[in-house]
Amino acid sequence: MTPTSLGYSRPTMKFLRMRPGFGEQLIAEGDVEIAEDEQALIEEFRRQLDLGMWAAVPTTRSDGRREAEMVRSFGEIPRDTGRVIFFPRAAGGAK
What's this model's pTM, rounded to 2 decimal places? Predict the structure, then answer.
């Protein structure tokens, strides 16, 4: 489902951060067709990655199963994506 199919007049991309115990927190929003908004989204995307966050785009398969695709650059995000989810990398692991 795209933002325009939800009744918005213009496509809007939202950046959400997952916070344990709080759920999703809106951290940025903009229209990728407006140069200023797109630049602000690009800068916020880079800032989140610099903070050590991972980014994923929610997707739905043809059989209805929901998944997420990891993205490493703003250019990998489909233009019609409504949400990009940022979440912290898992702590711990092998030393």
Answer: 0.79
